[in-house]
TrEMBL record:
Transmembrane segments: none annotated. Pfam families: ChapFlgA (PF13144), ChapFlgA_N (PF17656). Gene3D superfamilies: 2.30.30.760, Antifreeze-like/N-acetylneuraminic acid synthase C-terminal domain. Keywords: Bacterial flagellum biogenesis, Cell projection, Cilium, Flagellum, Periplasm, Signal. InterPro entries: Flagellar_FlgA, FlgA_N, SAF, SAF_FlgA. The gene is flgA. SMART domains: SAF. This is Flagella basal body P-ring formation protein FlgA. Involved in the assembly process of the P-ring formation. It may associate with FlgF on the rod constituting a structure essential for the P-ring assembly or may act as a modulator protein for the P-ring assembly. Residues 126-188 form the SAF domain. It comes from Vibrio zhanjiangensis. The keyword Transmembrane helix does not apply. Belongs to the FlgA family.
Amino acid sequence: MTYHNLRLCSLSITKCRAFYKNFYTSIAFLFFFFSFSSTSATSEQANLIQQAAEEYILSAVEWPVGGTLEAQAANIDHRVFATDCPSSLKASSSSTNPSASNITVLVECSEDNWKLYIPVRLTRTGPQVTTLGPLSRGQIISPQDVTINMVDLQRVRRQGFSNVEDVIGAKTKKNIRSGEILESDDVCVVCRNETVTIKANKSGMTITTKGTALTDGAHGDQIRVKNNKSNRIIEGRVTGIAEVTVIF
């Protein structure tokens, strides 16, 4: 303490207290700064945390059939607390929804008692039926009209098709531009008010008859059809072009 400050204390107790308060506040700030810096995450520690989050996503989230899954962890603020964990980092998440675009992963080190929540962005690609040229409403799709492309599945708003055989012979329900991904609502494998073949499977026997579709349907859809002979309305599953199968 300088002579001037000692003299200040002797003249004014209030000023002396203010001096000591400022002095100790400065010391506390410097102590906090150096202590904080010594425990902040290094670049290597941040990379390991990101890697743990990404590896968890790639192992826990279901991959698209015939496609790829990429995981990109968000950047980590190097001011956060982290250490060289004595054991492997543990990663977990409350969600593993394969359709999500982002999943938050908890990365923690139980030995050193710290944990971080890391947002991870998912990019899913998969095979989707895509048009090679423009299609008109009511057009019957041929093998020359479509192809398979690997696309970002986030672009697919509704259920698409991963196999061209699922759409060959189907009828378009609207005009479709070249290069568009075909979605289930774009085509009907079985079309409303059109004649279909009804297959009835019972005890290993198959009986076929003609019927009329009462709704549109894609492969696998459950739809209502009317038996043209009995006028009975039944439900069956779309199993092919203009074909509905009923299992008793």
